[in-house]
Amino acid sequence: MHYQQTGGAEGWFSLVLSGMLGNWMVGMAAFLAVMGRTIIDKFVPIVLAVSLFVAGNFQHSPANMAYFSMIMPTGEGPGWWDAMRWNILPAGIGNLLGGSLLVALPLWYGLRPKRCE
Q1: How large is the average pLDDT for residues 15-34?
Q2: By three-state DSSP, how is residue 117 classified?
Q3: Is the pLDDT of residue 1 over 80?
Q4: Which of 22, 61, 83, 105 sits at 20 to 30 Å (Cα–Cα) from 30?
């Protein structure tokens, strides 16, 4: 909820960007795990991607929904309206943009069949 303190368009843009980078790390961890042939080939890229995700404090909307669901019944937390407006919605938009523009599009471009001319 740090982005709520920043406020305005700057806070939203920062959160969308954090969501984009977060989903890029999640997507790359999944892609690199599929590309590995041995346990070590799968494990090392996942650890590196997740470590970067955590160190960068990137946002991931599904994980944030779980965190808010755990804290709200205790009476703590920001409340669902603020959580949706200042975290889940902009992080979700960032996750969609990051997954499509930073993971799917480059992989599609790099792995598409080449035409012989």
Answers
A1: 94
A2: coil
A3: no
A4: 83
Residues recorded for the chain: 117
pLDDT score for 38: 93
Q: How far is CA 96 from CA 9, 56, 61, in A?
A: 19, 18, 10
Mean pLDDT score across all residues of the chain: 90
Residue type at 37?
R
Q: Which ranges constitute the DSSP H helices of the chain?
A: 2-6, 8-35, 39-55, 61-71, 80-83, 89-97, 105-111
Q: What letter represents residue 73's amino acid?
A: P
The secondary structure of 63-84 as a DSSP string is HHHHHHHHHGGGT-SS-HHHHI
Least confident of 4-13, 22-31, 43-52, 99-108: 4-13
